[in-house]
Structures are given as structure tokens and as C-alpha cells.
Write a structure and sequence with these properties.
alpha+beta; Ybab, Chain: A; 2 helices; rod-shaped; cytoplasm
């Protein structure tokens, strides 16, 4: 809070910040995010809040003699998805992550 600022001003800033936070969270939840592995042979799509919506596996990687490779590709796609989801959240929340200027802890 700047010198001379009132409690009402602070509360208005907090209220505005809460609204921005809610809007950013809704935007993140509505964003489709994809993770992939094996050059796109395995793709997993989810919403920004982590709900998996689709899994696509190219038939080329389905080998009953080599299940380990397919499992590794799925894990790689999930890891990529997690990284991409985190990046989307950071992008959408970035301005809000800094908190309120001049107030420690906000």
C-alpha cells in the first residue's frame, strides 16, 4: 500500500485481484493442452486443469513384443503434458503471481 492509501483502496485492489485470479483460473481450465512423445506417435490432450480428454497412439508403436517402448512413450507424453500445462498456467497467472506491489506476502 502506498503512503496515504486507504484501507478501502487496499480492499478494492484485493477484490480486483480476486476477480482477475478467478478469470485466469477459468481460462486455464478451458484451455486445451497437449503432450506428446515419439515425435507425435503418442499424444495426450487435457484441459488446463488436468482433465485428460483424449489419448492418441499411432498403430506403428503398438507391438505386442515391445510393450515397454509404448509404456515409455505414454509416460513421456504425460510428462510433456504436465510441463505444457504448467507453462499455460504460468502464462495465464503470470501477472497475478507477482501479487500486489508494495505489500510483502501478496
Amino acid at each position: 500500500m502506498q503512503p496515504g492509501g486507504s484501507m478501502e483502496d487496499l480492499m478494492a485492489q484485493v477484490g480486483a485481484m480476486q476477480q482477475q485470479l478467478l478469470a485466469a483460473q477459468a481460462e486455464i481450465a478451458a484451455t486445451a493442452v497437449e503432450g506428446q512423445a515419439g515425435g507425435g506417435l503418442v499424444r495426450i490432450t487435457a484441459t488446463g486443469d488436468g482433465q485428460v480428454t483424449s489419448v492418441s497412439i499411432d498403430p506403428k508403436v503398438v507391438d505386442p513384443e515391445d510393450v515397454d517402448t509404448l509404456q515409455d512413450l505414454v509416460l513421456g507424453a504425460l510428462e510433456d503434458l504436465a510441463n505444457n500445462t504448467s507453462a499455460v498456467a504460468q502464462q495465464k497467472m503470470g501477472p497475478l503471481a507477482g501479487g500486489m506491489p508494495g505489500l510483502p506476502g501478496f
